[in-house]
Design goal:
about 300 residues, alpha+beta, D-amino Acid Aminotransferase, Chain A, domain 1, 3 domains, 12 strands, about 35% helix, binds adenosine-5'-diphosphate, binds magnesium ion
């Protein structure tokens, strides 16, 4: 194989999902980091023409910074497998499982992890609620809190179901966990650390995620060391239960001593102020180090 720095690396970002804008920002940050480290990088804003664009670019590796939809659910990963181009992050199956919150919940439970109690609604006519309100209603495969609502009154339930169903059935209805929100960063086999997310809004919704000043981030979380360690172990177990590779960010809810796993994000935000890069500083990686480690991990994985 060529010297790493001569390999042409395509930073694939953009896409057509609801998270397109965020993805472009991450893509640009990754692209700049690669240039600073002397890599032969190209920035690519890909859409439905991804296959054509990749062929024409002649890239030898894809750095994936696509969030949501076919950028994160295994589809583009499968296309790159067929084309014989190594790519960063999780493989086809792990990507698909992580994107599907129903499939991932089942695997978390099988791995002995706690998940909020839930049921699946397959149509709008839900007449009985097995839990007390509030409940959280969410699509089974979206990100960035798109389509997620917290329902406190029965009369708002239908509207929440319809909002989530815009992204397809079934819709997940789960018990609302009144706890602290902890996110843990994983890099292959290493737990990087964590952050506590304290939104000033009702929950960590799209606005809280992307509007500066609307959420407080505590790095590392101010929780007892023993509990922090348990959060790290739970996150690593969740990452492994889905067979993930590379960098992931695992969303947890902590209520007293109970740790609930919400999801594993296989293509976490990668702007310099995104959570995973912030968490990585706890393990001694600055932004450029993190990007370079991801490249090294990818090479190792595809050599095997
Ligand atoms: N069961 C729950 N109890 C309390 N809050 C929740 C629950 N599920 C989700 N949330 C809130 O909604 C946000 C988004 O939910 P999540 O399952 O992580 O989906 P997404 O893929 O959109 O990030 C979480 O960060 C949290 O603030
Ligand atoms: Mg989340």
């Amino acid at each position: 194989m060529k010297m790493l720095r001569q390999m042409k690396i395509g930073v694939l970002s953009g896409g057509v999902s609801a998270e397109r804008e965020v993805s472009l920002k991450s893509g640009e940050a990754v692209y700049r980091a690669l240039l600073r480290r002397g890599y032969n990088a190209v920035f690519m804003d890909v859409g439905r023409d991804a296959c054509e664009q990749i062929k024409q670019s002649g890239i030898e590796m894809a750095f994936l910074v696509l969030h949501g939809g076919w950028g994160e659910n295994g589809a583009i990963q499968g296309m790159l497998e067929i084309m014989g181009i190594p790519y960063t992050g999780s493989g086809v199956l792990a990507s698909a499982l992580s994107m599907d919150k129903v499939a991932s919940k089942r695997l978390f439970m099988q791995a002995g992890l706690k998940v909020p109690e839930f049921f699946l609604a397959s149509s709008l006519d839900v007449e009985q609620m097995p839990f007390e309100l509030p409940v959280v209603v969410k699509p089974s495969s979206e990100g960035s809190s798109v389509g997620v609502s917290i329902v406190e009154q029965w009369e708002d339930f239908q509207r929440a179901l319809s909002a989530a169903a815009r992204y397809g059935w079934p819709v997940i209805v789960e018990r609302y966990i009144r706890g602290r929100e902890i996110q843990i960063g994983i890099l292959e086999d290493e737990v990087l650390g964590g952050v506590e997310v304290r939104p000033k809004r009702k929950f960590y919704d799209y606005t809280a995620k992307y509007t500066p000043g609307s959420t407080e981030y505590i790095l590392p979380p101010e929780i007892p060391p023993g509990i922090y360690e348990q959060c790290k172990q739970a996150a690593l177990r969740a990452h492994r239960a889905l067979g993930c590779s590379g960098a992931t960010r695992v969303d947890l809810l902590l209520k007293d001593e109970d740790i609930y796993v919400l999801e594993v994000n296989t293509i976490p935000g990668m702007t310099e102020t995104s959570l995973l890069p912030k968490i990585a500083t706890l393990a001694g990686y600055d932004f450029d180090d993190l990007i370079e480690r991801i490249i090294e991990i990818t090479i190792k994985r595809f050599r095997k």
